[in-house]
Each structure stands twice: as C-alpha cells, then as structure tokens.
Design brief:
The protein has 17 helices and seven strands. It is mainly alpha-helical. Keywords: Carbohydrate metabolism, Cellulose degradation, Glycosidase, Hydrolase, Polysaccharide degradation.
Length: 495
C-alpha cells in the first residue's frame, strides 16, 4: 500500500482467443493505424476476480480465488463492534476506509453508467456482488450516528510481517472518527459510496437500496457538520487535497440518487470546485464535474461552470491540447508520479470514456483554447490507456496478472506470494521476509486480474516483489478499469 500526493493546477489548490482490432489514434500530430490484440471480455472477468482476492472476512461459497480463505474474523472485537468484511486495499492486510469507500464509489459508477455493457458481458451480477461486499462493511462501520470506523489493522506492525491474511497475528487496531475527531474526507467519501451503491441496487434490491441511501444521507450530514481533516491514516492515505472535493463528490452522488433540491442547492451555494488534472482516491473534483456536466447538458444551465471545469480537466490531459499539462511517457502512458501510477491511468480512462459518451449523447465537444475535441478523441484516448496496460506498450507486456503477454509474476502482495498453509500455522515475522519476500521465485498463487503499479515515466518496468511502486496492485486501480473494460468488451468484440 502506498500513498501519493495530488496535483491541482489553474485556479485551484497547489500542491483466451484474441480479437484483432484496428483503430485510429492521434499522436504527435499524425494519425496512425494500430492493431490491438486483446480479449477485453477476459480482462474484464479477471479484473473482477482480483477484487475477490482482496476480500476480508468470511468468504462466500462461490468465491473464485481458491488460494484465499477466511481472515480477520475478529475485526472490531477490540471496540466491541462487528467490523468483519470489507477489502484489503493493496498488498498488505490493513483495511483503510478512504480507499475502500472510493473503490465502492467508482465501481458503482461503472455499474450505473455501463450497466448494459456489464450485463452483455455477463458480469453485472459479479460487479454488484463486489459492490455489496464493500457496502455491507461500510454499513457496519457507520452504524452509530456521527461516528465512523475508518481503519482496521496496525499498518506499522503489518508492514513488519510478510504473512498472508489467513495467518496474520498482527494487531487489528481500530480507528474511528466522530464529532470530536472529525474526518470529513473519509465521511464524505463513505457517503458518496453508499449513495452511488443505492442507485446500483434500486431495482435489484429496493429495500437494501433504501437502507444505503438513508445511511448515505446521515453520513453526509456528519461529514459537513463536523469538518476537519483526519490524519489517522497517514502516512499511508493522507489527504493532501483537503475535503472540499469529497463534499462536492458526495453531494453530487446524493443528488444523483435522490434528485432532491437540497443537494443541488448545496452544490451551487456551498460546495467548492477547482480545476484539476487528475482523478484519484485523494482528488475527486473531476469526477464530480463530469457527473454535473451531464445534468448541465440535460438542461441545468446554471451548472455551466462545471462544464468548463470538466473541459479543463480533459484539456490538461490530452497530449494534443494546447493546455496540456500531464506528462505522457514516450510509449503514450499517462504518468503522474512513480508508485501505483496505474491508478491514474485507469482513472483517466474511466473519466475520458464516460465524458466521451456523454458528449456523444448530447452532440457536444470539449473546448481547449482554439481547439475542439469530439467524443471520438476522448474515447480513443481512454482505449489507448487501457490498451497500454494490457500489452500495447514498448515492452509488449501486460500489466495485468494472468492476462496477455508476459504478465507480472512477482506482484507485491502478501496473499499471492506466501504459499497456502494451515490457518493455524504461526509465522515468524522477521523470517517471513526471508522465505517469501526476498526471493526471485514467482508468486505461488496467481493474483488473477490485478493491475500492478506499472512502469516508470520512461516505460521501464522491473517485475520484482520488493519494487512496490511497480508491482503492487490496489483495489481502486481495478475498480476504475472495470467500466472501461466492459465498454471495450461490447464494442470491440469479435464480429
């Protein structure tokens, strides 16, 4: 698990059969024809399986990664609460509230916006199950009014032991926020997750959907009433961007779920926006801006500023935009910073894909200075980013475990790198690094579907377990990829 700072510019804060496809991409001032050889359906299926490998708690009978077992069944006991379940964020065995909630929010967005595509791929049921695994935990964590449990596990002790979650004996410390120790970022993101998920289940399970929505309202009220940044998850998930983006994001999802004017009034009268060049677990402005632009195009013309902000995000990323700011590697990859950079790639792909589809639906364009970009350009760029991760890159390798050509086999991940053993076996923590971490052997358990951190800004990559910046996966890297993969699976399938 790694933490990465955010970047805001402008007026904001500073801080396995193959399908042979032919498509067009604009790069460096010319169009070129590119062949992409990917089974997107397979990539989609596997990306969801990875989320199952990240599950904590009592696993269901239909659980697919056979090497995983029940774990952390006493979580919350130290506080006399039930906090069993949820997700481990990355390659460690800690449950962090902020990235967990963001995983659920973005996965829910994919399930809403690309519902038809996921249904066509036969994966909608699995995505809903993945969302519900997260929301069941968030409901437990938010059961008490004006109190939210935000972390289970001691990251310092956890990082001193390289052991699979089924065998861990490290402390399961519980952290919480309340009126006296607020954490607006985590509370607002949790509200966003619950609200977005309520839309997912509105027709599939109405009673559950209502429960999620009612809790989302209460948690949002907590978030905006007791404001403050919570540093308890530092140095791993510190919020460098502040909490205004999460408040805007949560209010936008609550408006999406309810269409109630109280949330639109908050968005227009109280919420703060900013022009940004990234979308991530720490920085949600661009996601909210694109969601609100949809409402602008549907007739809410007083949201015009959000359309301008959404365009600014696109303009700062597109390499052929006169306002381009984001670094693009020689091989064409968005690279914001070393360390789990793939999360920014999949985040970019999701926003470009969704915004491209919104633009197409309303026959609109993005305006970047003296240039205009239509939906096709955005959608092509989203596809280019996903294709890079799947194997169309200078190294001709896949960055998704178990998929494509020469995929990584040394993911920085405890469960995958430690052999399956009796849950009663006691592991010596210092020796665990000798036996399972500092070895050149491939992981004994395939972490199917995990998108690893990826290459550096020069497209270099080392498949080495100790190189966490390049080989550690995260739940949110995958949650951001699933919607795009579903769309690609439908519209670029073999005819």
């Amino acid at each position: 698990m790694k933490l990465f700072s955010m970047a805001i510019h402008g007026n904001g804060l500073r801080a396995q059969h193959m399908y042979i496809l032919t498509w067009l991409i604009f790069s460096g001032g010319f169009f070129s024809v590119v062949d992409a050889d990917f089974n997107y359906q397979d990539a989609l299926t596997k990306s969801i399986i990875f989320l199952e490998a990240q599950r904590s708690g009592k696993l269901p009978p239909n659980h697919r990664p056979s090497w995983r077992g029940d774990s952390a069944l006493q979580d919350g006991k130290i506080e006399n609460v039930d906090l069993v379940g949820g997700y481990y964020d990355a390659g460690d065995n800690v449950k962090y509230g902020l990235p967990l909630a963001f995983t659920v929010t973005t996965l829910s967005w994919a399930a809403i916006f690309y519902e038809a595509e996921l249904q066509a791929a036969g994966e909608l049921k699995n995505v809903r199950a993945a969302i519900r695994w997260g929301t069941d935990y968030l409901l437990k964590a938010s059961a008490k009014r004006n109190l939210l449990y935000v972390q289970v596990g001691d990251p310092e002790k956890d990082h001193e032991c390289w052991v699979r979650p089924e065998n861990m004996k490290t402390p399961r410390t519980v952290l919480k926020i309340d009126r006296n120790t607020p954490g607006t970022e985590i509370a607002a993101e949790t509200a966003a997750a619950l609200a977005a998920a309520s839309v997912v289940f509105r027709h599939a399970d109405h009673a559950y959907s209502r429960r999620l929505l009612n809790r989302a309202k209460a948690v949002f009220q907590f978030a905006k009433t007791y404001k403050g940044t919570y540093d308890g998850e530092c140095p791993f998930y510190c919020s460098y961007s502040g909490f205004n983006d999460e408040l805007l994001w949560a209010a936008t999802w609550l408006y999406t779920a309810t269409k109630r004017s109280i949330y639109m009034d908050y968005i227009q009268d109280e919420a703060i926006s900013a022009t940004v060049s990234e979308f991530s677990w720490d920085l949600k402005y661009a996601g909210a801006q694109i969601l609100l632009t949809k409402y602008y195009m549907e007739g809410k013309k007083d949201l015009h500023n959000y359309k301008q902000d959404a365009d600014s995000y696109i303009c700062s990323v597109l390499p052929d935009s006169p306002d381009h700011k984001v670094y693009i590697s020689p091989g064409g990859l968005v690279h914001l910073r070393d360390g789990a950079n793939a999360q920014y790639v999949t985040g970019t792909a999701l926003l470009f894909s969704i915004y491209g589809d919104i633009l197409a639906r309303h026959k609109q364009q993005v305006i970047c200075g003296n240039k205009k970009f239509g939906s096709a350009r955005l959608i092509a760029f989203a596809k280019q980013q996903m294709d890079y991760l799947l194997g169309k890159n200078p190294r001709r390798m896949s960055y998704m475990v178990g998929f494509g050509n020469k995929p990584p086999t040394h993911a920085h991940h405890r469960g995958a790198s430690v052999p399956k053993m009796s849950p009663n076996k006691v592991i010596n923590c210092p020796m665990s690094f000798v036996y399972y971490y500092n070895t050149n052997a491939s992981n004994p358990n395939e972490l199917t579907g995990a998108i690893v951190g990826g290459p550096d800004k020069n497209d270099n990559f080392v498949d080495q377990r100790s190189n966490s910046a390049m080989t550690e996966p995260t739940t949110y890297t995958n949650s951001l990829a699933i919607g795009v993969l579903a769309k690609l699976a439908k519209y670029h399938a073999q005819s």
